[in-house]
TrEMBL record:
Protein name: CDP-alcohol phosphatidyltransferase-domain-containing protein
Key words of the record: Lipid biosynthesis, Lipid metabolism, Membrane, Phospholipid biosynthesis, Phospholipid metabolism, Transferase, Transmembrane, Transmembrane helix
Annotated source species: Lasiosphaeris hirsuta
Membrane disposition: Multi-pass membrane protein
Any one GO molecular function term: cardiolipin synthase (CMP-forming)
C-alpha cells in the first residue's frame, strides 16, 4: 500500500484519465453485421471478375451470398441492437458498389444493353453530385473542408422515395436474372429479360426524377439542430 494516499496522480496517470473517458464514447464497430457488410464489399469485385471471365456459377454464388448477407446483417443489427453509425454508411455503400460493378461487367459482356447501363450509372452519378451539393449548401458556417467531412454535423437528410425502393428491388432482380441466364442455358429468359430491362429503365428514370420533384426527398436541417453539437465539441 502506498504511503501517500492523497498524493496527486503522476503525469502519466493524469493523461491516462483524460484519454479513457474519450475512448469510452467510441462505438464498437467490430460487430457481426458490420463484418457481414464488409464481406459484401470484398465480394463485389470478385463478382465482376467472375462475370468478365465467364465463371458464371461463381458469379451467381457470390451474388446470392451478397443478397443473403444484405438481409441478414440488417436483421441481426435490429434484433440485437447492434446498429452503428459506420454500418449506416457502409451498408448502402456495399449495395451501390455491387450494383455498379454488376452493371459495368454485364454491359461489358453484352448481357446488359449499354443504353440501360448508361441510364443506371447516370442516375447514380447525378444523385452523388446532388448529395455533394446539398451537403455543401446546407452546412452551417463556417464552411470548411474538415467540417464538410465531419458527419457528426448533420445538415441535410436524403430520404429514399417509394419509387426508389421499388427501383432498387427491380434492379437487383434484373441483375440476378441476368446472372442466372448463362448458368441455366436451357431456360429461355430472353423475353423476360427484355421486358424487365425496359421496366428498370423506366423506374430508374422515375426514381431519379422523384428526388428532384419530391418535397420530402431532401430535408435541410435547421442550423439550430447543429449548434448544440458544435458547442459540445468546443467544450471538450
Amino acid at each position: 500500500m502506498s504511503g501517500r494516499p492523497n498524493s496527486p496522480p503522476s503525469g502519466g496517470e493524469s493523461r491516462l484519465r483524460k484519454v479513457l473517458p474519450s475512448l469510452a464514447t467510441h462505438e464498437n464497430i467490430y460487430t457481426l453485421p458490420n463484418w457481414l457488410t464488409a464481406s459484401r464489399l470484398v465480394a463485389a469485385p470478385f463478382v465482376g471478375y467472375c462475370i468478365l471471365n465467364d465463371h458464371h456459377t461463381w458469379a451467381l454464388g457470390l451474388f446470392a451470398y451478397a443478397g443473403i448477407t444484405d438481409l441478414l446483417d440488417g436483421w441481426i443489427a435490429r434484433r440485437w441492437e447492434l446498429q452503428t453509425v459506420v454500418g449506416t454508411i457502409i451498408d448502402p455503400m456495399a449495395d451501390k458498389i455491387l450494383m455498379t460493378i454488376l452493371t459495368v461487367a454485364l454491359a461489358a459482356k453484352g448481357a446488359l444493353p449499354v443504353w440501360l447501363a448508361v441510364i443506371i450509372l447516370g442516375r447514380d452519378v447525378g444523385l452523388a453530385i446532388s448529395a455533394i451539393y446539398y451537403r455543401w449548401i446546407s452546412l452551417p458556417p463556417p464552411k470548411t473542408f474538415s467540417r464538410y467531412w465531419d458527419f457528426s454535423l448533420p445538415s441535410a437528410e436524403v430520404r429514399p422515395t417509394t419509387i426508389s425502393k421499388y427501383n432498387t428491388a427491380l434492379q437487383l432482380a434484373l441483375m440476378g436474372l441476368t446472372t442466372v441466364a448463362p448458368v441455366v442455358p436451357t431456360l429461355d429468359l430472353a423475353t423476360p429479360l427484355g421486358v424487365m430491362q425496359y421496366i428498370v429503365a423506366a423506374t430508374t428514370i422515375w426514381s431519379g426524377a422523384s428526388y428532384v420533384y419530391s418535397k420530402d426527398a431532401v430535408k435541410i436541417l435547421p442550423h439550430s439542430q447543429v449548434k448544440p453539437r458544435d458547442e459540445a465539441n468546443k467544450k471538450e
